[in-house]
Automatic annotation (TrEMBL):
Source organism per UniProt: Pseudosulfitobacter pseudonitzschiae
InterPro entries: AAA+_ATPase (IPR003593), ABC_Ni/Peptide_Import (IPR050388), ABC_transporter-like_ATP-bd (IPR003439), ABC_transporter-like_CS (IPR017871), P-loop_NTPase (IPR027417), Sigma_54_int_dom_ATP-bd_1 (IPR025662)
The protein's name in its UniProt record: ABC transporter ATP-binding protein
One Pfam entry name: ABC_tran
Keywords: ATP-binding, Cell membrane, Membrane, Nucleotide-binding, Transport
Gene Ontology CC annotations of this record: plasma membrane
Length: 482
């Protein structure tokens, strides 16, 4: 029996189509992968099927969900089915988690109120869920105390807790390292093995391969290619699909090293922790103008904390950071892992960017120059942050940062929401910024191939061999980061 059938789903804004007719079906035990570049309409398709589109967007088409026949133009009909028959794993965990509720309680509440478990059983099941995702220690933490990858896993546990037979996973592994990515994929597939339905929306080629099943490739709101996932990935028939696969970081050329400029910052024997847990210690490195330092390590190992310490946003537990004299505080900038938390929600993106350009003495046409370099449509500037995709917002965050003309950038997972083609565009722009403007960059990524082909040097943060301590592997200053 087909679990879900969607016929001729379209989405329009003000009468202008942005998702052209898409039809799909979901069968018990067979996953469906929707693959495509950022802004291709993947998330819009999921929102139309769930009845959760923003108010300024209109859907048409028919959705058959079990015994329910639903009109995509009437989203109110979907609400009684949320959580119980169909659930979505959200792309932005910061928007789905209650900032005033601890992680364990959020999962417990879903088991209790949606699935209907008793209080004690709900607590026990929530603890089991978090433990399976490597989050047993995060039970009492608030969302702001979690790394981006940890917050994503809590959101996954909460979304699954209602017992829905069909799960739509919208970029469920962005921000996660390879090991955690595979764990989440295996968890989703384990639920599928019990006869459920799974629709995965992603630009992550490795995740698509691991999920398997069938695939639909989208581009600019249109279906480009369909077929078994393994066949599409191995022998794509369309040029766009071939380009998407070829843009994977493992196929990039290595970055040519350039002469180093003057030192921008020096870190000496840094140590830091969160929640009473030491994340790293005895880290020493220096970074010069024009150089890129890659920072890698598993989720929760302290990569974002290191950035906060380097930028002076958090004090170190030990050690010191010396920044180049004569540079204004605004010369040191952070590109946030979760840009949705960094933009005013109720102002248009164009107004926010114009204000930043004016504040830093940049001409308005610099925005117009950067938009095409980041693959962004100017129409996005008329929208609020909630009206663009996560990948588009991440690139807009980079655009906003470049308006400041920084001398140092801590780029915290700047491409975690981007498809391979757009990811390469963004990394190329960061490379050009380092080379042309002498900007020093610390680039955080879970992707070792991306870091290896982008950075001049690499700093690895890894779990310690004993206890619960996490200690960074220091890059030797003799190695010449400067």
């Amino acid at each position: 029996m087909t679990l879900l059938k969607a016929d001729d789903i379209t989405v329009a804004q003000g009468g202008t189509p942005i998702l052209h007719p898409v039809s799909l079906h979901l069968e018990p035990g067979e996953p469906l992968v929707i693959l495509g570049e950022t802004g291709s309409g993947k998330s819009l398709l999921a929102q139309a099927i769930m009845g959760t589109l923003p108010r300024d967007l209109a859907a048409r088409g028919r959705v058959v969900l079990g015994d329910h026949l639903l009109d995509a133009a009437r989203p109110e009909g979907f609400r009684p089915l949320w959580g119980r028959q169909i659930a979505v794993l959200p792309q932005e965990p910061w928007l789905s988690l209650d900032p005033l509720m601890r992680a364990g309680r959020q999962v417990t509440e879903a088991h209790h109120l949606v699935r209907g478990l008793g209080t004690q059983d709900a607590r026990a099941q929530a603890a089991t869920d978090l433990d399976r995702l490597g989050l047993a220690h995060a039970d009492t933490r608030y969302p702001h105390e979690l790394s981006g990858g940890m917050a994503q896993r809590v959101a996954i546990a909460a979304a699954r807790a209602g017992g829905a037979g069909i799960v739509i996973a919208d970029e469920p592994t962005k921000g996660l390292d390879a090991a955690r990515r595979d764990e989440v994929a295996d968890l989703l597939l384990a639920e599928l093995a019990r006869g459920g339905g799974l629709l995965v929306i992603t630009h992550d080629l490795a995740l698509a391969r691991r999920i398997g099943g069938r695939m639909i490739v989208l581009r600019a709101g249109r279906v480009v290619e369909t077929g078994p996932t393994a066949a599409v990935m191995a022998v794509p028939t369309q040029a766009y699909t071939r380009d998407l696969i070829a843009a994977d970081p493992e196929n990039w050329p290595a970055r040519s090293r350039r002469p180093a400029g003057a030192p921008v910052l020096t870190a000496t024997r840094l140590a830091a922790g969160r929640g009473g847990v030491r994340l790293f210690s005895d880290l020493s490195f220096d970074l010069s103008a024009g150089r890129i330092l890659g920072v890698t390590g598993p989720s929760g190992c302290g990569k974002s904390t290191l950035g906060d310490v380097v930028l002076g946003l958090a004090p170190p537990a030990a050690g010191r950071v010396n920044r180049s004299a004569g540079l204004a505080p605004t010369a040191f900038q952070k590109l946030y892992q979760d840009p949705v938390a960094a933009f005013p929600r109720h102002r248009t993106l164009g107004r926010t960017l114009a204000d930043v350009a004016h504040r830093h003495g940049q001409p308005r046409d610099r925005i117009d120059t950067l938009l095409p370099r980041l693959g962004l449509n100017p129409v996005l500037l008329t929208r609020t942050p909630g009206g663009v995709s996560g990948g588009e917002l991440q690139r807009l965050a980079l655009l906003r940062l470049l308006l400041v003309r920084p001398r140092f950038i801590f780029a915290d997972e700047p491409t975690s929401r981007l498809d391979p083609i757009t990811q390469k565009q963004v990394i190329d722009l960061l490379r050009d910024t380092a080379a042309a403007e002498g900007c020093a960059i610390m680039l955080v990524s879970h992707d070792p191939e991306l870091v290896a082909r982008t950075a001049d040097h690499v700093l690895s943060l890894a779990p310690a061999k004993t206890g619960g301590d996490l200690s960074g592997q220091a890059v030797k200053r003799a190695g010449g980061l400067g």
